[in-house]
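Researcher: Before we compare anything, I want clean individual predictions. No alignment, no superposition, just each chain on its own. First chain goes here; please echo the sequence and then give the structure tokens.
Model: Echoing the first chain and its structure:
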Amino acid sequence: MAKTLAGFTVSKSGEDYTITIEEEGGATEEYTATYDQLDLIVETVGETLDEDEEEALAVDGEGDEDKD
């Protein structure tokens, strides 16, 4: 079963980056990633959000019409 994300941080660690992921309940995991890996994560998240953007930003539409 998937764990629920509570938060995360990304920090520079020498040549690489440390990604710290916190789950609900407070448990954390740390991962080391290169610049290219972190860039790929950013690109993938952006593409995924772009695909869902219209649905996520959809407004009900009721009461939005201009009435003369």
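Researcher: Okay. Second chain, same rules.
Model: Second chain and its structure:
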Amino acid sequence: MGTIKAGAVAKGAYIMERNEPYVVREHEFVKPGKGLAFVRLKLKNLRNGTVLRVTHKSQDNCEEIDIEEIEAQFLYSDETSFHFMDSITFEQFEVPMPSHEKAQYYMLAGEIFKLTRWNGETLDIRLPPKKDLLVTAAESAVQGDTVTGATKFVLTETNLKVRVPIFIKKGEKIRVNVETGEYQERVND
């Protein structure tokens, strides 16, 4: 950790603000005609994802934090945690599930993920933009239900419930948008 002048903080930098770790998403340097220059920052909280907008004088000190990026293999999950193994040190560690609840629907045992860590705490599990998942349960299509755009719900191997077109069956793979949780397309292996 170190200090840096607010005017020198760049987009993508990791800083402490109000005793919480943030990443700088936007940085705007403002030099008014009169008075001191200042910086407007848009920050994303690394623990809960909330966005904070702050203004600092360009000469104010900000506390930079050292973030560690590692690759880790997802092993399994239980009721409270995800269990990972560092790909380099083979050290196993837990990540509390409540702070990364959405991730449980897009991780399969054995897959490698990039994790953002700070002081031994996992702040982010980087998920891919799209994920291919096996359909493990699907409602049957009702005969005569051929209205254009007719949909039904299916359950995937990760227990994600997804609305899909009526032609999707149990045992097929579907591609899901990780950000929205919506069906994208059927995947043919």
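Researcher: What stands out in the second chain?
Model: The mean pLDDT is 88. Additionally, The domain at 130-187 is CATH 2.40.50.140 (OB fold (Dihydrolipoamide Acetyltransferase, E2P)).
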